[in-house]
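hi! just following up on the protien thing from before. the input was this:
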Amino acid sequence: MSELELDHRAITMNRGTFLRRSLQLFAASSIVVGGGSTLRCRAGGPLPELRGISEQEYHNMNALGEVFLGELPFDLDLGKATDDYIYGHPSPIDVKENVHELAGVPSSWLAALLLDASFTTLVSLEPADRRLRLLGWRDSDSVMKRGLFNIMKQTCFFLMSSSKEYVAMTGYKIDDGFVPYRYVAPV
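and the predicted 3d structure came back as:
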């Protein structure tokens, strides 16, 4: 084999590892959008007290929630649901890291550039344009776009179903001590 020929076995990586590394790169290239442009993601009301995620991740998750949960008959603060999950869930650290990395995708300039050939990040778009871009990912020939779309959508629905607001809307009584992730040790 000459020096110019590449050995196809030298650069092998399974899809899960590739997606994880891509999410890490996207999170690392996340642009902190300040001021009024992030307020477009969640209209009205002050920013809640965040204990597990950053303000940028809060706005990023609300931007995704506007797309994936926008047609639901109730208003859910997906950023707060993400914060509650990160802060209160007894999951392993790597699961929480995955959620942090996923929350960085909407403001990642690298994701916008590589996946859409655009310099405009998802969080910078108006909700209707954001929906169109993500629907383009769903119908794309690119496995990376379709996979990222499905992961983000499933994560949004999971976080929604584990939020206090959703549990209360479904008719269950919630008291101040309610924690949807409380681990009860077997007797």
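The longest helix spans residues 143-161.
The chain is about 55% helix and 0% strand.
cheers
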